[in-house]
């Protein structure tokens, strides 16, 4: 299935039909860096509030800026005012981002209450005004992240189709659609069926699926069956950059690669922690890194024991000690002792 160009996002050409989604609270530079290292061709940064990044003093902070070694990289913006969204988009492109993604999907209650994210699905005019304002301000590719409606009502479905139709008419470079409604949040199984209908009605549009990309083989099989243009890996890539190695290897016809050994996992864990520690005071770095740890340890044969040990660690040194005890050459022995 390999090829030179598998997915186009406007002027961006990717050699595989998948990339890393924007993940609130997760997709910072270290996560994006590991994704690229293991075969991801493109990643979106953590969702950014438009009214914040539109301010020069905020965007000057290193945590909001793309790395010199991670192009192409995209920025996802969250907001409800066309002028502010356009200003933020212009600032982000000026800071070095290669693509702007408009968030019309976030289901978080605090976001919905402020009329942002998924709330825009109930207001097609406003969603399209935002798209027009952003597209009129930047020359890079512009995409939209949607869900299939705020709920399963007929009106919600009508609003979804109006946004899809008008966005495509406005020349949106791609629609990334999560196969759940906003009210579902992450419950149940993502349904790519409506996405297939979008592609059927608008065959020339780029339609990218989102939702439940946890298994590389299954996701690629589903892509082939549906005829969609691509998909994003979101929750399935947290603490699991190896999913991109699996996806790329399968896409290139090389079969499923061997899973990472404990020594390799240890190296990634320690490097990830070190990179997080560069941007936070130690106590915050440990707390922040802990949310990645609970995903990383899913690959460990003694997951429960490792989680318990890591959650007790309070300092960076303690976290590193636990990682070194459970991973690497003696990791299997440590696991055996714990169960013996």
List the helices and strands and how they pair.
Elements: E1 7-9, E2 12-14, E3 18-20, H1 29-37, E4 43-44, E5 48-49, H2 50-53, H3 56-59, E6 73-78, H4 82-94, E7 99-104, H5 109-113, H6 124-135, E8 142-147, H7 154-169, E9 174-178, H8 193-201, E10 207-210, H9 216-226, E11 230-233, H10 242-251, H11 262-277, H12 282-296, H13 303-312, H14 316-326, H15 331-339
Parallel strand pairs: 3-11, 4-6, 5-6, 6-7, 7-8, 8-9, 9-10, 10-11
Antiparallel strand pairs: 1-2
Helix pairs in contact: 4-6, 6-7, 11-12, 11-14
Keywords for this entry:
340 residues, two-stranded antiparallel sheet, TIM Barrel, 15 helices, 11 strands
- The CATH superfamily of the largest domain bears the name Aldolase class I
* Share of residues in helices: 40-55%
CATH T-level topology of the largest domain: TIM Barrel
Tell me the number of structural domains. Answer: 2
Q: What fraction of the residues are assigned to beta strands by DSSP?
A: 5-15%
Mean pLDDT: 93
| Anisotropy-based shape | globular
What is the alpha-carbon Rg in Å?
20 Å
CATH class of the largest domain: Alpha Beta
Would you identify the CATH architecture of the largest domain? Alpha-Beta Barrel
Largest sheet: 9 strands, parallel
Q: Span between N and C termini?
A: 46 Å
Total E-strand runs: 11
Low-pLDDT residue spans: 335-340
Structural class: alpha/beta
Question: Order of helices and strands, N to C?
Answer: EEEHEEHHEHEHHEHEHEHEHHHHHH
Give the oligomer, counting copies of the same chain as homo and different chains as hetero. Answer: single chain
């Amino acid at each position: 299935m390999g090829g030179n160009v598998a997915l186009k996002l406007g002027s961006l050409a990717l050699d595989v039909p998948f990339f890393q989604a924007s993940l609130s609270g997760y997709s910072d530079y270290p996560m994006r860096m590991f994704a690229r290292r293991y075969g991801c061709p493109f990643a979106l940064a953590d969702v950014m509030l438009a009214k914040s990044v539109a301010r020069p003093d905020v965007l000057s902070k290193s945590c909001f800026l793309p790395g010199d070694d991670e192009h192409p990289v995209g920025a996802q913006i969250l907001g409800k005012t066309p002028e502010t969204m356009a200003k933020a988009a212009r600032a982000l492109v000026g800071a070095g981002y290669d693509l702007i993604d408009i968030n019309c999907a976030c289901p978080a209650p605090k976001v919905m209450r402020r009329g942002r994210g998924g709330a825009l699905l109930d207001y097609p005019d406003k969603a399209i005004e935002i798209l027009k304002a952003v597209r009129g301000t930047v020359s890079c590719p512009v995409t939209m992240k949607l869900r299939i409606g705020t709920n399963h009502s007929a009106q919600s479905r009508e609003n979804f189709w109006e946004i899809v139709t008008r966005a495509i008419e406005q020349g949106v470079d791609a629609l990334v659609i999560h196969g759940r409604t906003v009210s579902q949040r992450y419950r149940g199984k993502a349904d790519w069926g409506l996405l297939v209908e979008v592609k059927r009605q608008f065959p020339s549009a780029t339609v990218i699926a989102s939702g439940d990309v946890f298994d590389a083989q299954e996701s690629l099989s589903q892509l082939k069956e549906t005829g969609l243009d691509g998909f994003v890996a979101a929750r399935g890539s947290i603490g699991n950059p190896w999913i991109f190695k699996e996806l790329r290897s399968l896409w290139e016809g090389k079969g499923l690669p061997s899973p990472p050994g404990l020594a390799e996992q240890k190296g990634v864990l320690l490097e990830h922690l070190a990179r997080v520690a560069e941007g936070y005071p130690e106590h915050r770095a440990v707390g922040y890194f802990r949310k990645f740890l609970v995903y990383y340890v899913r690959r460990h044969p003694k997951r429960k024991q490792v989680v318990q040990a890591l959650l007790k660690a309070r300092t960076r040194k303690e976290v590193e000690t636990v990682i070194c005890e459970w991973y690497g050459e003696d990791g299997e022995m440590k696991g055996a002792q714990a169960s013996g």
